[in-house]
Amino acid sequence: MKYQVVIGLEVHVQLLTNTKIFCGCSTRFGAEPNSQTCPVCLGLPGALPVLNKKVVEYAIRAGLATSCSIAPRSIFARKNYFYPDLPKGYQISQYELPICVDGRLDIEVDGETKRIGITRIHMEEDAGKLVHLETMEAGEKSYVDLNRACTPLLEVVSEPDMRSADEAVAYLKKLHQIVTYLGICDGNMEEGSFRCDANVSLMPVGAEEFGTRAELKNINSFRFVKQAIEYEIERQAEILDEGGKVVQETRLFDPATGTTRSMRGKEEAHDYRYFPDPDLVPLVVSGDWIEEVRSSLPELPDAKRQRYQAELGLPEYDAEVLAASRDIADYFDACVALYPQAKPVSNWVMGEVLRALKEDNREFADCPVTPRLLAEMLKLVESGTISGKIAKTVFDEMYKTGKEPAKIVEEKGLVQVSDTGAIEKIIDEVLTANPDNVEQYRGGKEKLFGFFVGQVMKASKGKANPALVNEILLNKLKG
Predict the structure, then answer these.
(1) Which SS3 state, helix, strand or coil, does residue 364 take?
(2) Is the dihedral of CA 115, 116, 122, 127 positive or negative?
(3) What is the DSSP string of 196-233?
(4) Averaged in consecutive runs of 10 residues, what is the pLDDT profile of the chain (479 residues)?
(5) Is 186 exposed, middle or buried (0-12, 13-18, 19+ CB in 10 A)?
(6) Which of 202, 66, 200 shows the shortest CA–CA distance to 121?
(7) What pLDDT is stored for residue 418 in this prediction?
(8) What pLDDT was estimated at residue 397?
(9) Domain range spanning residue 449?
(10) Which of 388, 412, 436 marks a domain boundary?
(11) Are residues 259 and 393 located together in one domain of the fold?
(12) pLDDT score, position 267
């Protein structure tokens, strides 16, 4: 490709607070339209905003987790523009003095690590929402729902450091993982809790000056981000190849067609006529508060992956899967605390636990097999009370009923058979029933050993002690 792609992302993170940023209205999703409003978020004359302290705490958490500097003094500004769902005619945001600056995220693409700079993270309020409906009587009508107006957001603005759609998606996924780990955002992209604007431009390879950028607005899935950026790269390359000029504008992505279309000319900062909000005093954050927030941060994904490999001896793949979300990691950590053998726990969490939850469409918080129950079951396997195969039956029953594993084993008669006489009898019956296979094994076809083990376990209904089966069977086959 003769053009260098340049991408920067502006990510809007909806904060997981109970109330809005400047008033006490609920932020609950899915309520009746305009049922969660008050004079402040409706923009009524004389209504004064009061800053939600929890929003500031969450902003500090995000800044610390992305290696930002936390400003001891920041200022709220009015961003002036007109839109039907913006009742005040301006949005309260931050401009010249944001709360977090100069951060970074390290991403991995194609096995290589790349550092993406974060210019700023600032707090702001969300606008409302337009609902477009078509009625039989009047055709299409647009309705305004202001429940979302004044909902707290963080805007995370990256440096234009990304050079492909894959890098942009990797950055987004890493940021999504961090804000959900921190507990400041639910990360629900379908509900708009985590969405991004992508600034995309092309310049000739070797050039130093960036090309004219187009902004792709409000994309709410990783797949759509990749599609939108890749389409925009093709569109701009075609314009440049034909000798044309890319227009600076805001464009919308249409998932149905996989294309972008022009929405409006791209505004610059001066178009918004920013000025300090006279109703809000400067925000002063003390060093003590910053350190208090820092001490409350959870172990973040990168550190967790490193610990799983270095301290617990897990393979890289296991560490990657287990640290992928805080729910999985917390469940795994709780199991290991009760049964300190990381690899067996990892196998069960990545295998049976994840499988059952996926099939049942459940979250870890609702898993009937608690870390304690899983640990108790693994202890039964370790003691030889049940075999690994029987453990799967016990797990399924625990998942259905929530019963103690020992009780399930007792009720269903699942105790592992370790009596050598009983196992020897079963093996003799299997060998007698398969004389041809015995002869082939003794003639050098040693792969048949697995067949014999399978037959013995089947005859014992999975209860025979596998170690004893292997030992006795091997001795008998050798004659």
Answers:
(1) helix
(2) negative
(3) EEEEEEEEETT-SS----EEEEEE-SHHHHHHHHHHHH
(4) 93 97 95 95 94 98 98 96 90 96 96 96 95 74 93 97 97 97 94 94 92 91 95 95 92 92 75 93 97 96 96 96 95 97 97 95 92 96 86 94 92 73 81 84 83 82 76 80
(5) middle
(6) 66
(7) 66
(8) 94
(9) 420-478
(10) 412
(11) no
(12) 65
Cβ atoms of 297 and 65 within 8 Å: the answer is: yes
Instruction: Based on the fold, state whether residues 403 and 424 are members of the same structural domain.
Output: no
Of 52, 120, 48, 135, which is closest to residue 88 (Cα–Cα)?
48
Six-digit token string for 86? 């913006």
Residue pointed to by tokens 């647009």: 142
Amino acid at position 211, single letter = G
184 contacts 217 by C-beta, under 8 angstroms: no
Output the pLDDT for position 269: 65
Is 454 inside a domain boundary?
yes
Beta strands in 151-309 (DSSP E): 152-158, 194-204, 214-219, 249-254, 259-265, 275-276, 283-284
For residues 403 and 346, state if they share a domain. Answer: yes
Q: Give the span between the Cα atoms of 47 and 68, in whole angstroms.
A: 34
| Confidence at residue 442, expressed as pLDDT on a 0 to 100 scale | 82
| Token representation of residue 102 | 């100069």
